[in-house]
Amino acid sequence: MSQAQNLIRTLEDNSLSILSESIGDVRAHGGPTLANVSDEDLQVALYTVLLKIIDTLREKASAPSEVKTDTKTIFVAAIRDMMDYIDGQSTYTVGHTRAVTSHVVQMASRAGLSDAEIDDIETAAWIHNIGLINQSQKLAALPRTLTQDELKQARNHTVMGAEMIRPIQFLSHLVPTIRYHHSRFDGGAGTGEPAGENLPLGARLICLADAFQAMLEPRAYRSALTREQALLEVDKGAGAQFDPALVPLAHELNASL
After folding, report:
1. Which of 157, 250, 244, 249 lies closest to 196, judged by CA?
2. Is pLDDT at 143 greater than 50 in this prediction?
3. HSE-up of 83 (CA within 13 Å, CB side)?
């Protein structure tokens, strides 16, 4: 039996116990920010992730291939499929993660990062919104701007997403990137979060790419911005929401599209 087949069997045989133990781990690491997320929502989120992973592993393991695929590659492929599913839950976010990942990879390449660093940041970009598998994804479809409470709820996906990948050995080093990908460069007003260059570079790149792409997409309460309008907003956020050293990369990205 292959490594992938062994992994599939293990996940299938232990899915319920994994689910039960994972909820406890998420609660333990997530802190008070997850207090308003019910056990039922966590169960749905975690079990959906598990099922998606099992399905993709099974598909990859049964497909003919001349080259053996390692477990990490199979897992990341499963994550990509799952993110397409999550984005597809709202007509306003279809293809969002794919576009953000493309932006991030292009900007990371222009920033002169190594192939290994770009690979890590690309993986982080693919999974940055994994926490949106909970009910906060529905907020994207509201026909108005979000209230402060709703905005806080939506941004809780950074905490949930970080805790969902923490137990995964080959992704655990990306936890800070996922956790802080919505954090402001200037630190905001007394948030106590890292700021400036203390934020992971991957988080700063994703923050910029994610916001830029969101501006290019329509929402129920507004039309999509043009690239010129989006870049103007990005420039306004330089040094506050965004790393000012990375903002010029968004302009280069715009020219390349």
Report:
1. 244
2. yes
3. 23
The mean pLDDT value of the chain amounts to 80
Q: Side chain identity at 123, as an amino acid letter?
A: T
The whole-number pLDDT of residue 159 equals 86
Return the amino acid letter for 129.
N
| CA gap 58, 87 in Å, rounded | 23
Domains, the chain, ordered by start: 3-256 (1.10.3210.10)
Three-state DSSP at 59 gives helix
144-171 tens-digit pLDDT: 665 766 666 666 788 888 988 888 888 9
Nearest C-alpha neighbor of 214 from the set 129, 92, 116, 72? 92
- β-bridge partners, 242: 238
Burial 166-204 (b: 16+ CB within 10 A, else e): beeeebeebbbbbbbbbbbbebeeeeeeeeeeebbbbbb
Which of 228, 158, 160 minimizes the C-alpha distance to 193? Answer: 158
